[in-house]
Design brief:
The complex is a heterodimer of chains A (about 375) and B (about 475). Chain A is α/β, with parallel strands linked by helices and about 375 residues long. Chain A contains 15 helices and eleven strands. Classes of the chains: A alpha/beta (about 375), B alpha/beta (about 475).
């Protein structure tokens, strides 16, 4: 097995294969990593309801197996739950993987002991919005939902009576529903920065819906997949060229959709930029949730943004936000967590991206894509003679 | 390190925002966002985000010495005699509150929630004063009138009010300080509320009842709601104030001021406080400490370390709020339960009552019966009857002071926690009139003492010095002061 190889794989355990997405390969691989001692812990989402799950760090393979299946209405970034030095694996959407790498660059995550099992991602939805959408658009009781999937551009919900209810995502998003705004303009759908990238795009023929397409990106990627094969938890077959081409085509189509959303949401500000930002931030209640939840912030409690600002300030715009806007220019990945948790519903991710995008383009730096390029705000103190 | 994850609600106020608490083996914990929570969609204010810094575990004590919980319970049983007074303001579950009520009943007493307005206003109003409106109703209102500052007092209302504005509502704020989300900020004589606010049945009034709220002021607002047909919502500073009020209905209540007065005149010799720290809650901390010092027995049953536990004769330390089994009813009347299974407080009271271990089950049934439901579903608000009430003759007390030190959020909300709020606010005219200079703190003096503190220029009413924290020279909700540099 070599870096760059592509396979289609599935779990050998029938239960995992049935409950997991696309043949349960990821679940089987994570559980096997624990069972064979490749890692000490795995970060997964423990399902509490159809739209609710909580991240857990577990050493119990059974908890990993119980977490099988996708949850598009649980928009959580898992990298915040990693503990430095622990040999750990995590299933990682591109934002999970990218924030893990940004944290590793800042010494918060040991990348050598962290196995990033990437998952293709077309976007996630906020559970509150999902419930509202089900009631108002699908005319369904959210409590009747037993499953959901995204297929061929449609968002499909399955109800307890076995019926499937599908609506085109484009139409939903036109009406303000569907994926979170930041997911709509995110152009990173295949986690090529992860140790191994998994997803259902490119799985064709008899294996469609029953297997996971896997691309090996690193030595750790080889290790975690071979470990699962050795454990008898996973079987693979080489991916064919047609599958690879389809996968690339789907990715390309998703990137075009993202580019259109980018144009829609992040078009230049009309009028005074200063007024725009003052108005956008005027309802901030100084809770600090945006910083606490940020998966690329590595500053801890005594940070510049908190130390340089105070509720007693009378500036027209809080220094807390201004410092953060500047500080995150090189690391904001647009994951949407800050917007999700903002109690005043300030579209913070949108604003951070307005600051970050131009400068990231200028420096040709896309955060979280690999470990080789340091943050452009990073200074090597040893090299500088300190 | 292993974690236990609890689904719970924030104990900060009566909105009762859903959240997770992640507790580690060593007892330390972090909070996490519960995005599927119907009340708050996972969003939390500063109090919720900083809960780990603000919430410390309590320790059982007898006469200042640390003891096992069982020994503290034994001491508690020996110390409570007839004539004891009981307080539970609503910082615990309905079930634990009911357990205390059973104990109080066995001693011929009642449990006081301390909300003086409920004692002073006729019972036909209590349902309207207790249970508010669904938070969604704020988003669909045509007019929203604020008698609170949502940014400081109940921050998770901000998004609801903003959503209402987005849906076309106009927002009027009546208060000490201009609120930026309001279309109109007004100072109105209560006699003119009806004519100046011009409300109707599509309007929502948001106000607050706390232990020091002037009942006459509540009556004025009830009259306003009745005359206009507007919905009214009284926020409370304690997470389960509504649930505990529902549990306590039909009992004669004393205000906290009355309780302190009766301690001072010797009528109350033993006081039992269930998650109710009068030192933190009441405006004049010195006066409260002096009164508590006159008690033969101060008994504190508490889920967290706080000032009153330091001066109590007996402290019965129960599990933290997030670990408690039981029901909380929020300002909307929505019942919620967490995943906690702890019943330390109930078990302790059960021992004293000679009650078997299933006291929780009995109390839980009683709570569900009171709410008229078979089981708690956080997505369905129980139906509450709100009887018609008559117009009341009300004359709110006007504070006649030249320069008034006023709490922005009252001393109850967040129990006076110091949290980036160590400054006062006043308008530019106040600064000029008192010769204050930029960068030099202000000196604020009352009959009780003085404080030197940072200030911030805000759009505050003339003659008002607004404070978010309880200052040591405070004598009440409004304190007459002088300001100089």
């Amino acid at each position: 097995m070599d870096i760059g190889d592509c396979y289609v794989g599935w779990a050998t355990d029938e239960d995992i294969r049935t409950r997991g997405a696309s043949g349960g390969l990821v679940t089987a691989m994570l559980a096997a990593a624990l069972e064979k001692g490749l890692v000490e812990a795995v970060v997964v989402l423990k399902k509490l309801g159809e739209f609710e799950a909580v991240p857990i760090v577990t050493s119990d393979p059974e908890e990993v197996k119980a977490a099988a299946g996708s949850m598009h209405s649980v928009p959580i970034v898992l990298s915040r739950y990693l503990e430095y030095g622990t040999k750990v694996a995590l299933p990682a959407k591109p934002c999970d993987a990218r924030s893990t790498i940004e944290q590793a660059k800042r010494g918060q995550v040991d990348i050598d002991t962290t196995y990033i099992v990437g998952l293709n991602c077309g976007g996630t939805m906020h559970p509150a919005m999902t419930r509202e959408m089900l009631e108002t658009v699908y005319k369904l009781d959210p409590e009747e939902i037993v499953g959901e999937e995204i297929d061929k551009g449609k968002l499909i919900f399955e109800t307890k009576d076995g019926e499937e209810h599908a609506i085109k995502i484009d139409e939903l998003e036109e009406d303000g529903y569907g994926r979170r705004e930041s997911c709509q303009y995110c152009a990173v759908n295949i986690p090529t920065m992860a140790d191994i990238a998994c997803g259902n795009w490119g799985v064709i023929g008899d294996l469609a819906g029953k297997g996971t397409f896997v691309e090996i990106n690193t030595e750790k990627g080889i290790a975690i997949l071979e470990n699962a094969i050795d454990a008898g938890a996973v079987e693979i077959t080489p991916a064919d060229e047609k599958g690879k081409a389809i996968r690339a085509k789907v990715d390309g189509a998703m990137m075009k959709v993202a580019a259109a959303a980018d144009k829609k949401y992040l078009s230049p500000i009309e009028g005074s930029h200063l007024d725009y930002y003052i108005n956008a931030l005027s309802d901030c209640i100084n809770c600090g949730a945006c910083k606490t939840v940020c998966p690329v912030c590595a500053c801890g409690e005594g940070a510049k943004c908190t130390e340089f600002s105070s509720s007693s300030d009378t500036y027209k715009m809080s220094l807390f936000h201004l410092v953060r806007f500047v500080h995150l220019m090189d690391s904001c990945i647009g994951c949407g967590q800050c917007t999700d948790v903002c109690p005043a519903d300030i579209p913070l991710t949108h604003i951070y991206q307005r600051f970050a995008r131009p400068i990231q383009d200028e420096f040709e730096y896309k955060p979280g894509m690999d470990m080789t390029t340091p943050p452009f705000f990073g200074v090597d103190l040893l090299e500088e003679g300190h | 390190m292993n974690e236990n994850i609890f689904t719970t609600v924030c104990p900060g106020c009566s909105i009762a925002c859903g959240m997770y608490v992640r507790e580690k083996d060593d007892g330390t914990f972090n909070i996490d966002w519960r995005k599927d929570a119907v009340v708050n969609a996972g969003k939390l204010c500063r109090f919720g985000v900083r809960l780990p810094a603000n919430l410390k575990a309590a320790v059982s004590k007898v006469d200042g010495n640390e003891v096992e919980l069982s020994d503290a319970v034994t001491a508690l049983g020996n110390a409570i005699g007839d004539g004891a007074a009981f307080v539970s303001v609503g910082n615990t579950t309905c079930e634990e509150h009911l357990a205390l009520m059973k104990l109080a009943e066995s001693k011929g007493a009642v449990v006081n929630t301390g909300m003086g307005a409920f004692s002073a206003i006729s019972a036909e109003c209590h349902s309207t004063m207790g249970v508010g409106v669904p938070l969604d109703a704020i988003e669909s209102a045509k007019k929203i009138v604020l008698f609170i500052d949502p940014y400081e007092q109940y921050p998770l209302l901000v998004r609801r009010i903003l959503a209402g504005k987005k849906n076309g509502a106009t927002v009027t704020a009546v208060g000490w300080k201009a609120v930026s989300l309001a279309d109109d900020n007004k100072t109105i004589d209560p006699a003119n509320y009806e004519s100046e606010l011009a409300l109707d049945s599509d309007s929502v009034i948001i106000a607050e009842i706390n232990p020091s709220t002037d009942p006459e002021r509540v009556m004025v607002l009830l009259n306003l709601a009745k005359a206009s047909g507007a919905a009214i919502m009284f926020m409370k500073p304690f997470v389960n104030a509504v649930g505990c009020d529902l549990a306590s209905k039909k009992t004669e209540q004393k205000s906290l001021d009355q309780i302190i007065a009766e301690i001072n005149d010797g009528s109350i010799k033993t006081l039992v406080c269930l998650d109710s720290d009068l030192i933190e809650i009441m405006p004049d901390e010195t006066a409260v400490r002096e009164a508590l010092g006159k008690l033969d027995n101060l008994i504190v049953i508490t889920s967290r370390a706080s000032a009153i536990a330091d001066v109590a004769n007996i402290v019965v330390a129960t599990e933290p709020f997030y670990k408690k089994a039981g029901t909380v009813v929020n300002a909307e009347g929505r019942a919620v339960v967490g995943s906690g299974e702890g019943t330390d407080g109930i078990d302790a009271i059960g021992v004293m009552l000679g009650q078997p271990a299933d006291l929780f089950a009995e109390l839980n049934s009683a709570v569900l019966a009171t709410l008229g439901i078979d089981a708690v579903d956080e997505r369905v608000i129980p139906v509450y009857e709100k009887p018609e009430y008559g117009v009341m003759d009300a004359n709110p007390t006007a504070e006649e002071v030249e320069t008034a030190l006023v709490y922005a959020g009252g001393p109850f909300f967040w129990n006076g926690i110091v949290d980036d709020n160590d400054f006062v606010e006043m308008n530019l005219d106040m600064l000029t009139a008192n010769s204050l200079l930029k960068g030099i703190p202000a000196k604020i003096v009352s009959d009780k003492g003085e404080v030197v503190i940072k200030y911030k220029v805000s759009d505050v009413a003339p003659g008002v010095v607004l404070s978010n924290m309880k200052l040591p020279m405070t004598t009440g909700m409004v304190t007459s002061v002088t300001v100089s540099r």
